[in-house]
Specification:
By secondary structure, the chain is of the alpha+beta class. It is about 15% helix and about 20% strand. The strands form two sheets. It has a two-stranded parallel ribbon with strand order 1-2. A two-stranded antiparallel ribbon has the order 3-4. It is elongated.
């Protein structure tokens, strides 16, 4: 039991794993996901990416279908905005005088 638990990668294809097709295996993944969630005594953070760069390709994964099974009354959704990269200023050569 922990005060705070983070479960990252809560995306379709990761949780449950994309190659899992057997119903028994999906149920086992669901059980393990539940076990991870129940270890949180205080706060639980379920994190998924909006964009992912994997194996040289960019994708926009969907959230895990397991998230739909959690009641909306128990969820506080927070969207972290994308960061805006500042234009790098060209290096200025210092003068001697």
């Amino acid at each position: 039991e922990f005060k705070v638990v983070f479960i990252a990668g809560v995306e379709d294809g990761v949780i449950p794993y994309a190659e899992t097709t057997d119903d028994a295996a999906i149920e086992e993944e669901r059980r393990l996901f539940y076990v991870g969630m129940t270890r949180a005594k205080g706060e639980l953070f379920l994190i998924h990416a909006r964009n992912r760069f994997l194996y040289g390709r960019r994708s926009a994964p969907l959230p895990s279908p397991f998230l739909k099974e959690i009641s909306d009354t128990l969820v506080e959704k927070t969207v972290i905005p994308d960061t805006i990269r500042k234009q790098k200023e060209p290096d200025k050569q210092m003068g001697l005088f």
